[in-house]
Automatic annotation (TrEMBL):
Gene name tied to this protein: guaA
Domain of life: Bacteria
Domain GMPS ATP-PPase per the UniProt entry, residue ranges: 202-394
Enzyme Commission (EC) number: 6.3.5.2
Cited function: Catalyzes the synthesis of GMP from XMP.
A GO molecular function held by the record: ATP binding
Name of the protein: GMP synthase [glutamine-hydrolyzing]
SUPFAM superfamilies the record matches: Adenine nucleotide alpha hydrolases-like (SSF52402), Class I glutamine amidotransferase-like (SSF52317), GMP synthetase C-terminal dimerisation domain (SSF54810)
Residues annotated as binding ATP: S229, G230, G231, V232, D233, S234, A235
Keyword Cell membrane applies: no
Amino acid sequence: MTLQHTDSILIVDFGSQVTQLIARRVREAGVYSEIAPFTTAAEAFARMKPKGVILSGSPASVLEQGSPRVPQEIFDSGLPVLGICYGQQVMMHQLGGEVVLGDSGEFGRAFIEIQDSCVLFDGLWHARESHQVWMSHGDKVVRLAPGFRPVATSPGSPYAVIANDERRYYAMQFHPEVVHTPDGARLLANFVRHVCGLSGDWTMAEFRAAKIAEIRQQVGDGKVICGLSGGVDSAVAAVLIHEAIGDQLTCVFVDHGLMRAGEAEQVVTLFREHYHIPLVHVNAEALFLGGLAGVTDPEAKRKFIGKTFIDVFEAEAKKIGGADFLAQGTLYPDVIESVSFTGGPSVTIKSHHNVGGLPARMNMQLVEPLRELFKDEVRALGRELGLPDVFVGRHPFPGPGLAIRIPGEVTKERCDILRKADAIYLEEIRNAGLYDTIWQAFAVLTPVRSVGVMGDGRTYDSVLALRAVTSIDGMTAEAFEFPAGFLPRVSTRIVNEVRGVNRVTYDYTSKPPGTIEWE
Ligand SMILES: Nc1ncnc2c1ncn2[C@@H]1O[C@H](COP(=O)(O)OP(=O)(O)OP(=O)(O)O)[C@@H](O)[C@H]1O
Ligand SMILES: O=c1[nH]c(=O)c2[nH+]cn([C@@H]3O[C@H](COP(=O)(O)O)[C@@H](O)[C@H]3O)c2[nH]1
Ligand SMILES: NC(=O)CC[C@H](N)C(=O)O
Ligand SMILES: [Mg+2]
């Protein structure tokens, strides 16, 4: 049985890339929320009995035939509604205002001018002030629906924020959920607390209890296999599931030969030391490296790895007398980058092995308790579950491992070169006390060869790239600025100690436009 949250917010998803960020901002304000796609929002609304509704952005335009609409029940209910971007446009369109195709949009940073007081601005913004927000729209509202008043304006949006206090309807053209709207989290908190009247006392402890109840309901007395990688997500998933169903759970660690130096042994030892959860260690290097021979396309690598993981899990399930469920530590960023919004122009960026890389037909049902969370929230849940820091603080490591850090063909020889270089880089990062400041750091073995001179001889060897980023949730990231002298030291060590590499470069690209991994 799902725990019934008396105090909840329904977020209607119209297909924005950042809808999940609305959910997490609401969680940060201490309020439980659920996201429902607009197609099933009416059912979710009836089931949840929320205290307020938030309407997301969308790649669609209200002016297009057949574009998404808000279920009428929501407007009829008398509950507070907050519209964001498309959410604002669709509110105006349905409630009697007017939206037109703008001659130019507003994309990125913008400044709004506050015109009037508004409950959303409580303790935050005052009339005649100017504040930074983040916009991403082409259409604009040109006439307000009856009962609304403008409370803020921007050069491209006369109605940047609007309010109808009597009906408790509010809307904004910009995105308060993204970090580039610095006060956005507080605007959302004001909506859920001051407009919807919620107390903000929901915690990670409740999330844990709710998920445990959900897992028990889904699994019944079935058997579960959990893919355990040694990473944060699967460790948290395994411990949570174990708390829910005890010995119905078996963990499977797949060593695909694409792990970092010494990692496989470390993962298994560490997990066995801390937990009494059965753990199977599968050596599948030959299977993975054999299948990757000759494969160079990044998506082909990802799809092969995703499918082979499942083959291995299914084979292991057989050995323990069958399993009905496969548990994975899938997080929200894995999902959003892998799927495209049905009916809209949002695109697949890359097929994360555990989502878009899964084969079409699977014999086991998925159990993914962390699917709506972001990395830093999983870490908070891990702490809540009492996981030791060695698990919680680990840098993320992608399931496809070194395969997506070797552009071009993956061979054992190239994996060995990369492992050595990567180990030196991480050792230096740890020695410099920078491991916990950096969100993720790794080396990439490029297919480029360059000419060098060593010991008066000519070399013609591989170019290695180093990457380190800072991030909160992995959705956006910036290159890490190392202190002076660090990169030259690492570069010298790698070229001296790793045969096959004669040049080292540093990747300064942020995300976007880059992604964190190279493939
Ligand atoms: N080598 C592996 N063996 C078994 N399962 C794996 C392996 N690598 C990845 N998985 C499964 O795929 C999921 C997604 O991988 P991902 O790397 O995102 O998470 P993680 O490894 O648990 O955490 P982190 O992001 O910190 O590395 C994992 O949670 C795990 O269930
Ligand atoms: O389990 C995973 N399976 C995958 O297929 C995968 N691809 C990327 N990543 C990790 O996700 C985060 C965001 O990475 P990108 O910016 O490269 O998309 C970073 O932390 C990446 O390491 C993956 N994790
Ligand atoms: N981010 C959004 O919600 C955009 C809404 C609509 N597609 C526009 O361009 O105006
Ligand atoms: Mg991992």
